[in-house]
Amino acid sequence: MEWQQIEYFIAVAKSQHMTNAAKQLSVTQPALSRSISTLEKEVGVELFERRGRNLALNRYGQLFLERAQNALAEIEKAKQEIANQINPWSGVLSLCFPHILGAELFPTMLGAFRERYADIRFELNQCSLDELTARILGNDCDFGITTLESANDAFHWQLIGKSELYVAVPLGHPWADKSSIRLEELQGEAYVGLKPSCALSYTVEALLAGTGIEPDTLYRADELDMVAGLVAAGFGVSLLPKTLGIRSYPMAWIPVNDPACALTVGVVWKRDRRLTPVSEVFLDFVRARYQAGASE
């Protein structure tokens, strides 16, 4: 059953005349008659009584008309709701982000955006990296916040900021008073790492691999809070950003001077997806604000 058949049926039911309905619809009378006949075959019963040149709905036609009009009204309502959500000036944007990446850079970006586009609303979804990927690929979220290293070829990526990475050690560790450290010093050191479900793990693994470092990874956790807790308790050291959520843990933070270590955070979106008008507005803003760090 095609939606056009429903529209044709409603037009004939209202005009009660095939020729007049055909004129209103700008179709030929034979084409309209075939459409109604096909519809009646699909529902398994005639919907009209022929009375000379006029048509009158029978009891089956009355039943079908009521449901058809309700369906049409619901479709029009859905179309309006979608139009409202994708409106470039007052629509809704869905964004997903891992816990670690939503603490500082993300709110700063959104705050700047809302200063310019106060009527655009956001649906914010905190999730794991795997969930972020699935939501964007499934078109459940418009954009995500993640690292360059964790974004694959299915996405575009745009830098929005960087955070320095430090070697975090327990307060009683021999390195606690160091003013700086080389990454190679982590070789063989007891280390607390992150599971691949955390976007930061891809950045850290790339840094370690790039310098040929293999620390003695004793534990891997899903979130920074757990890593920070294990480091503070003396289970090892770790490479971490000094984010708000873990600054309060009793640890020493040592800057890395060779090589420079940073967490790169950016906006990702599905590469082959047609963007909505409100998504285009957001993306234009992000590109204009952070164009120097574009990477697609």
UniProtKB/TrEMBL annotation:
**Record's GO cellular component terms:** cytosol
Keywords on this record? DNA-binding, Transcription, Transcription regulation
Q: Which part of the chain is the HTH lysR-type domain?
A: 1-58
Q: Which InterPro entries match?
A: HTH-type_LysR_regulators (IPR050950), LysR_HTH_N (IPR000847), LysR_subst-bd (IPR005119), WH-like_DNA-bd_sf (IPR036388), WH_DNA-bd_sf (IPR036390)
**Molecular function via GO:** DNA binding; DNA-binding transcription factor activity
Extract the Gene3D superfamilies matched here.
3.40.190.290, Winged helix-like DNA-binding domain superfamily/Winged helix DNA-binding domain (1.10.10.10)
UniProt similarity note: Belongs to the LysR transcriptional regulatory family.
**Protein name per Swiss-Prot or TrEMBL:** LysR family transcriptional regulator
Query: Organism source for this protein?
Result: Cohnella rhizosphaerae
Output the lineage of the source organism. Bacteria, Bacillati, Bacillota, Bacilli, Bacillales
